[in-house]
Amino acid sequence: MIICQCTGTTDRDIARLRAEGLGTVAAVAKLTGAGRNCAPCRSEIVRLLTLPMVGPTDAVNAPSASDSICAA
Length: 72
Ligand code: FES
Prior knowledge:
The chain has helices at residues 11-19, 25-32, 42-50, 58-61, and strands spanning 2-4, 9-10. It is mainly alpha-helical and 72 residues long. It has one domain: Orthogonal Bundle (Arc Repressor Mutant, subunit A). The chain has a two-stranded antiparallel ribbon. A hairpin with a 4-residue loop joins strand 1 (2-4) and strand 2 (9-10). The two termini are 25 Å apart. Residues 4-6, 34-41 line the site of FE2/S2 (inorganic) cluster. FE2/S2 (inorganic) cluster binds at residues 4-6, 34-41.
């Protein structure tokens, strides 16, 4: 799901950064540009960064709506 309309940053991008230890708004902004332009996405970035982590890579590896179920 796209979180930042200006940069196209997704929830998976943010989860990946968080799993890599870059789970701050400043780090997300620096590495993706999200929240640096018009900034309405900042509250959603904060929300994603403060969600409980189930596992270090669970959010990164979770299938998205665009992932194919069958690779055959
Ligand atoms: S929507 Fe994220 S900076 Fe504009």
